[in-house]
Here is the input.
Amino acid sequence: MISLEDRQRTAQSVEEACREGARLSSACEVAGIDARTLQRWKTHAGLDRGDGRPHAVRPLPAHALSTQERERILTFANEPRFAELPPARIVPMLADEGIYIASESSFHRVLKAHGQAQHRGRAKAPQRRRPPSTHVATAPRQLWCWDMTFLAGRVTGQWHYLYLILDVYSRKIVGFEVHATDNSDHAVELLRRTALAEGIHALPDRPVLHGDNGATLKATTVLAMMNWLGITASYSRPRVSDDNAFVESLFRTAKYRPQFPASGFASLEDARRWASGFVAWYNHDHRHSGIRYVSPAQRHAGADRDILANRHTLYLRAREANPRRWTRHTRNWNPITAVTLNPEKESIVNAALLAEKEKASAA
Here is the structure.
């Protein structure tokens, strides 16, 4: 489609060429359009309103699926017995029960519109479906993300491996380990220890754990441990480098700290001592800008609300003492209520906040 500005510019150029003696068809050919196209622009006010196709009202085809039929497709497809099956198997099985809603292709279209079709029928982890990479956390222990990064040794070619789990809501490092090798068994043990330390076995809803598509974090033993713990797996979208931004940002913070050895770590024990010191600093001393400059440990324990309320009171007193220094309102010290991993739609965040309010009022 040609924008309104380009249409007007092209029409003006053709008219100028015609006034200079050029034929209309030749001038349009040089401009890259057809003479009939220019005539249509002039006839249907295309030079005033632009292309009307994006705003055109198209009638719904008579054979289109109704809203009730789409809902039935989703209802059947999300039944536990069909959760792992593609439409090519769902439709025949329903037919054996005397039920027909739509064809396999219609099932595919409806499921794809809801983000469920692309993962169906593949060999997967024990979880029934891989959830989308957009998640909202309104409290600790709802959403974790993890990754592994390399820590260079002083010997060329020698590496140590830092495994780390971060609570997205509070930004607290809830689990970490440093090893001399990259092995999925290390990830399994870290996940088990972190789940035990955070007490997720007593939670009614287990956390979602988001990671990249690395082989270590997607190993069968790791997925089996997630299934045993009741943790839902989530993975970055293919070829999207910033889909695990919280952990990547944390690794950048770690490696740009002055205490990080530029010449590498002398030994595995040296790397582990550094990691322990960094985690203690990050969790308890670091004031994180993404959570109103409280420490991750304070937010994880729920102490951030009182801290921020006290800050707000202090700011109000300061404004009362020196009103001329304050032209407007004081700084916003309201707690961050929801943290979104890879936000795509504002409605997702609003729905999570509404559910949290309903849960609080019911309690």
